[in-house]
């Protein structure tokens, strides 16, 4: 292998601003626009409340991520935290469950990109469009995290400009009498529309939109000068920026959508913009979301899941080949190939069931979050110098929030999560059995050799 090493070190090339923009590229400032139909429908017309509850849940988890990243900087993120504080088995389960999220999110984004292109090119084949999107994003990520971070920075800046423009157009329409005709508190709370189960189900979707902060933690081994404190700062900065953008955007959208007929949750933003500003505006937004958002948005997703696979391969909890690092570009190229192939397969299988895919995503992330909080309690909670807020109160509140949302996930999402967990346990049992068998065979061979 002239251009690769097995279990090599990842390239340290990232600064604080790189981490912030990487996280923003993962979450995507335009997420409330593309997710508007899903969140509005599931929440029963209370999208602002769903995003606020999502931000509250994620605040506790982001705080625990920030604490653990400083203590144990690892590309494996939650897998590394749980392994160091609770042992290999807990580490494997946490890493396995977060992988479900990291594999489904890119698949969901691939499918959304294809939907955007279909708006531009009617009657095009969605499967072919998904494959093209995957090929482009994989090609960019192949050249390493430094290239990915530069593309992410440009994408985020352009997204902020477009979100401001779209929100401005929608705000002008509100002032002209569209929707509720004003910025009311209706998207936050309406006694007649409030249904706790529906709002919490929508919150589980909103949590997915905030997931850039945990992806930042997977880059802890690629920070310049080994200064892992910047990872925690970047995580909290990312959450502050995204929650502000999401709440403001959904506040405007939530007041504009009453009375608007939803034909397809995946295309609501295009239909709404066309109704207000004409078909040209909807087409322009579709091009932008596809070329400037869709492709760059998948880049950090591919990078994040590859880092978790790399760390698990390095520790041999998954096949060791996943720990191979490209010597020239400094990226875990085998893990990236494997994760991209899996996400591509999921996207192709679920390309006509995107709404179901959106609901399935959060179960893996929420399960992983529980392990992050438990890691804080196990490592810091019993130490004499513990800080009661960040080391005890935050993880306990975080666990309560995550379990509440998990309990309100759909039966389909819980079935997918349970099936994934059983598959992981079966694989773990197979690895343990095969390891013991090989050791036993080695001992027998030694005995035969020494006692012919």
SSE inventory with pairings:
Elements: E1 4-6, H1 16-27, H2 31-34, H3 36-43, H4 47-71, H5 78-86, H6 88-120, H7 126-141, H8 145-175, H9 196-209, H10 212-217, H11 229-256, H12 268-277, H13 279-314, E2 324-326, H14 333-349, H15 354-360, H16 362-379, H17 388-407, H18 411-450
Antiparallel strand pairs: 1-2
Protein name: APC family permease
Membrane topology: Multi-pass membrane protein
Keywords: Cell membrane, Membrane, Transmembrane, Transmembrane helix
Report what the structure shows.
The protein is mainly alpha-helical. The protein has a single domain, classed as Amino acid/polyamine transporter I. 74% of the residues lie in helices and 1% in strands. It has a two-stranded antiparallel ribbon with strand order 1-2. Helix 5 packs parallel to helix 16 (362-379).
Brief synopsis:
The chain has helices at about 15-25, 30-35, 35-45, 45-70, 80-85, 90-120, 125-140, 145-175, 195-210, 210-215, 230-255, 270-275, 280-315, 335-350, 355-360, 360-380, 390-405, 410-450; strands at about 5, 325. The chain has 18 helices and 2 strands.
